[in-house]
Design goal:
This protein has 337 residues and is an alpha/beta fold. It has 8 helices and 19 strands. Helices cover 28% and strands 26% of the residues. The longest helix is centred in the C-terminal third of the chain and has 18 residues.
Length: 337
């Protein structure tokens, strides 16, 4: 990091976009004593937000299998911030499993990641009794966690108001209409300020069954349809994993069949589960799939969180706060115009 000049510390801060990136920025700045107003064009339900369709996995060690080291670095820091501000966040770890025919991919995943310990069939059963007899071995990442986006986002909004920040739902604010410093966290809506930004579709299915219990996210390694199953509580599970280079928000028949088929492989009881919801969100991503904080005088743009929104948002907000407080610049993430 190096230091540079920054906006005045007493200027008001307006943040546009109350999804996961904007909410964490508002919370940390309000906690630091800044005058913060968070603007969101939709209502408090946030059903139009990318965050509404997110998985909510806090898995920096697992993500190292396919992401740049900066993702793990920021993600590990974010875990501390989740624990600090939301002590009830479940940190039960992540479990990675595969069937014997996919052992080569399983071993590759193990080599590409760290922070895990190997389990035999008994270890898998002790960790997740519902998976008894299903898998001969697994990888357990004990320090990882997960959140339920549709529950934790309102909790973030409540924490912002308790810290003295203001939230304006139904506010279609433009940066030119706002005084002081503006932090743009609009995601895909910020294409006018973020050349190269694209939408990457992530599909999800929520199912419900009383026959399976899981305490943590389970990832199934498979060469064609890798899957993660995330417990949502009350017998509900989210199925996801797709990253499709398309900007529509429909769920294809192929994707639905693959997600449901993969879930059946994890546990046959999922075959009798009730489908509660199908949906898709568009993740904002730059060509390199890495996040960026762009600083332009009285405007800061935070974008490109791709599939790592809930993992990266706290650490990115902390970087923005460090710049505003001390002029610090993280060269891997921040750009100065």
């Amino acid at each position: 990091m190096f230091q540079t000049s920054r906006p005045r510390g007493d200027s008001p801060v307006s943040i546009i976009g109350a999804g996961i990136a904007g909410a964490w920025h508002a919370l940390l700045l309000a906690d630091a004593g800044r005058s913060v107003t968070l603007h969101e064009r939709s209502d408090a339900a946030m059903t139009e937000s990318t965050s509404h369709w997110a998985g909510g996995m806090l898995a920096p060690w697992c993500e190292a299998e396919g992401a740049e080291p900066v993702i793990s670095r920021l993600g590990i820091r974010s875990l501390d911030l989740w624990r600090q501000h939301f002590p009830k966040t479940p940190f039960n770890g992540s479990l990675v499993v595969a069937h014997p025919r996919d052992r080569a991919d399983f071993e590759r995943f193990a080599r590409m990641t760290s922070g895990h310990r190997r389990l035999d069939a008994q270890g898998v059963r002790e960790l997740e009794p519902s998976l008894e007899g299903r898998f001969r071995e697994g990888l357990f990442y004990p320090d990882e966690g997960h959140v339920e986006p549709r529950r934790v986002l309102p909790q973030l909004h409540d924490a912002i108001t308790r810290a003295g920040g203001a939230i304006r739902f139904g506010s279609d604010a433009e940066a030119t209409d706002l005084d002081g410093l503006v932090i743009d966290c609009r995601g895909l809506a910020a294409r006018d300020r973020a050349p190269g930004l694209r939408g990457v579709k992530g599909e999800m299915i929520i199912i419900e069954t009383s026959e399976v219990e899981l305490a943590r996210p389970v990832r199934l390694i498979h060469p064609r349809w890798p899957l993660y199953v995330i417990p949502r509580g009350d017998g509900r599970f989210m199925l996801g994993a797709t990253s499709i280079e398309a900007e529509d928000t429909g769920v294809s028949v192929r994707s639905a069949l693959e997600l449901l088929g993969a879930a059946y492989v994890v546990h046959p009881a999922f075959g009798e589960a009730r489908i509660v919801e199908l949906g898709a969100g568009l993740r904002p991503a730059f060509p390199d799939n890495l996040p960026r904080i762009r600083i332009e005088q009285e405007r800061i743009t935070v974008n490109g969180l791709y599939r790592h929104g809930f993992l990266l948002a706290p650490a990115l907000a902390e970087l923005t706060l460090a710049y505003l407080s001390r002029g610090e610049i993280d060269n891997e993430v921040m750009q100065c115009a």
